[in-house]
Design brief:
This protein is mainly alpha-helical. The chain contains three helices and two strands; from the N terminus they run H-E-H-E-H.
């Protein structure tokens, strides 16, 4: 990996590019653009790094993204349930996330068709 980068947006993206290209993972798992600021920055950083990698290298890892708070952050208070499968989901927020994922999938598919 290269020398440390400055603490800036470009420095963080370049550092992530370095880590991805050094380890060359088969799969990268990251949060998607949800309601939490840190998760939004993670999503944007990963997308920027992957954009550069796709444009400038032949490396093509699988990228899996999802909302971290699909059942926790924007949900109904049910503190006494034992596991995630019993967690009640805030249906309004859940449907909004599905809509956003559907739009993103459409945009991803459209851009692939456009580039072909």
């Amino acid at each position: 990996m290269s020398k440390p980068k400055p603490y800036s947006w470009n420095g963080i993206v370049e550092s992530l590019i370095d880590v991805i290209l050094y380890f060359k993972p088969d799969t990268i798992i990251a949060t998607d653009y949800d309601t939490h600021v840190d998760h939004r920055l993670c999503a944007l950083t990963v997308e920027s790094a992957m954009e550069w990698i796709i444009k400038h290298t032949e490396f093509r890892p699988q990228l899996l993204k999802g909302f971290a708070y699909a059942t926790g952050y924007e949900t109904i208070d049910d503190y006494y349930n034992n596991h995630l499968l019993s967690t009640l989901i805030n249906k309004k927020h859940y449907h909004l996330m599905n809509l956003v994922q559907g739009i993103q999938l459409y945009l991803d598919t459209s851009s692939k068709n456009f580039c072909s």
